[in-house]
Amino acid sequence: MTTIPHDAIFKQVLGHPETARDFLEIHLPKPLLALCELDTLRPEPTSFIDDELRHSCSDILYSLETTHGAGYIYCLIEHQSTPDPLMAFRLMQYSLKAMQHHLNKGHKILPLVIPMLFYHGEASPYPYSLNWLDAFAETERACARELYSTPFPLVDVTIIPDDKIHTHKRVALLELVQKHIRQRDMMEWVGQIVQILRANPTDGEQLKALLNYMLQVGDTAHPRAFLERLAQGSPEYKEEMMTIAERLKMIGREEGLEQGLEKGLEKGRQEGRQEGRQEGRQEGRQEGEKHASLEIARSMLKSGIDAEMVRQITGLSRDELAALRS
Predict the structure, then answer these.
(1) Which helix (H) or strand (E) holds 208?
(2) Per-residue pLDDT reduced to its tens digit, 178-225
(3) At what angle do helices 274-302 and 318-325 cross, to 10 degrees?
(4) How does pLDDT run across 1-28, given as a tens digit for each residue?
(5) pLDDT tens digit string along 283-295?
(6) Choosing a second label site near 297 at 20 to 30 A (CA), which of 86, 142, 184, 303?
């Protein structure tokens, strides 16, 4: 509840839809008024505005249908008795919050939000621009207008030719890997990866992270051979590659799966029924996968790889990772 008398009376009066309808009919610019079906005006809660904004906010929010019969419009009326040079930016923040509120209700298309400022301060007329782009430095204002009125920059690696990616210096390997991670057997990449590593020396930790990502998400029937071929083509990174090959992929996954499968088969034999054998195999595979993930995570942590990255790659929980480090 607002404690300032100005805000309190403003919200009490304009909180009535009939009064708000008259206000909008009088004060909305004609092109915007033409879009609003005022008979559909209804108040909306503002509880979605976070505490930080609510401290400086005494707004009223109404929703309306459009005269076009499709879409939604929100009118946000903000009360101020003190000029604020960043008021236009605050109104933009409120508007974005209102848009998110609309999407949270299940809608799939953004609504039009019309922010309005009701001002009655001592300084007259209101001294600041209500175009939020004017809040940028004068030297950057033209750029801001261009940036926020046109499509944002897009880096779509799916359409960048591989030979072009090869010229992208230290980011080339990341772009190449993420372009092809779902589409090709990793063995097909070896030549390109080696070429990139030769042209652009890569930090060892970054390379470890990328290799772990490729082995976890990528597709190859022969991960050991993949890493060995990389090591042959890039001998300066042989230690990093073979460490991962031996400690993460081979030891963890192959031994874990083999032990888990044997345990499951033994359980199935003891039960002596087909159902038991099937359940045993399934349980064994699951235990093997878990053992493999734990071995991989343990080796990655020993190699100094960030715990959050380890969690994302292995799928283990934070508690499971904490147990490994204890």
Answers:
(1) helix 204-217
(2) 999 988 788 888 999 999 999 988 888 888 888 888 888 888 878 888
(3) 60
(4) 344 677 788 888 888 999 999 999 999 9
(5) 656 666 676 677 7
(6) 184
Query: Which has the closest alpha carbon to 2: 48, 41, 46?
Result: 46
Please state, in angstroms and as integers, the Cα–Cα distance from residue 4 to each residue in 8, 55, 77, 88, following that order: 6, 12, 17, 22
Cβ atoms within 10 Å, residue 291: 19
151: DSSP letter: P
Question: From CA 63, how far away is CA 17, in angstroms rounded?
Answer: 10
- The amino acid occupying position 173 is L
Residue 160 DSSP SS3: coil
Report residue 304: phi and psi, to 5°. Answer: 90, 15
Q: Is 36 helix (H, G, I), strand (E, B) or coil?
A: strand
User: C-alpha distances in angstroms, 103 versus 39, 68, 72, 106, 300?
Assistant: 23, 20, 11, 5, 40
Q: Report residue 162 as tokens.
A: 């591989």
Which pTM does this prediction carry?
0.67
Q: Where are the domains of the chain?
A: 5-147, 157-325
Whole-angstrom distance, CA of residue 212 vs CA of residue 245: 10
For residues 132, 133, 134 and 137, what is the CA-based torsion angle, rounded to 10 degrees?
A: 130
Question: What is 66-125 written as a DSSP string?
Answer: ETTSSSEEEEEEEEESS--TTHHHHHHHHHHHHHHHHHHTT-SSPPEEEEEEEE--SSSS
Distance CA 188, CA 191 (A): 7
